[in-house]
Amino acid sequence: MRYWIVPNDGKLFNTEKALVKNGGFIDWRAGNRKFAVGDIVFIYKSRPESCIRHMLRVVKKDIEESFDQKIFWSDYKDHLRRMKDSKYVRLELLKTLHDNSLCLAYLRKYGLCGNLQGTQTCFGDLLDYILDQFDGE
User: Fold this and answer.
1) How far is residue 65's CA from residue 45's CA, in Å, rounded to a whole number?
2) Cis peptide before 48 (omega within 30 of 0)
3) Containing H/E element for 60?
């Protein structure tokens, strides 16, 4: 099992509304990432929040046709252009954090290098810190 941090620009895609509409599930573009069923995905909300907000589990992979999520995209046509030849993974919401314990400054303190501009795996002290925050919620 792997742990992933996935950035989300709320100006492009409204994760929260999509999760509510789909009963706690969301489909996410897999790209060239090797997600596996059972992997844990942390959604990092970019500016102005700059925090991890959601913990989800991969429940299905290699989905070619996702939930109808176009109403949650600010530019759905651009999304479709980027989706060409890509599949989705279905994620199930496990927990949401509403505090700032997983903001960028804390993530860096516990081992995150650089900015979260793309999906990355998570391990070591950083993973331990993130899991502790979700367990304490």
Assistant:
1) 25
2) yes
3) strand 51-63
Strand-pairing partners, residue 27, are 90
What whole-number distance in Å separates Cα of residue 97 and Cα of residue 46?
Answer: 15
Write out residues in the chain with pLDDT < 50, as ranges.
Answer: none
Give the per-residue pLDDT at 24: 94
User: Judging by beta carbons within 10 Å of its beta carbon (0-12, 13-18, 19+), is residue 54 exposed, middle or buried?
Assistant: buried
Q: In the sheet where 40-45 sits, what is the strand order?
A: 25-29, 88-96, 51-63, 40-45, 3-8, 120-121
Take residue 67 and report the two structure tokens written for it: 């939930």
Measured CA to CA in angstroms, residue 65 lies from 27, 53, 98, 127 at distances of 9, 26, 31, 31
pTM of the model: 0.86
pLDDT of the residue at 80: 57
* Contact (Cβ atoms closer than 8 angstroms) between residue 52 and residue 107: yes
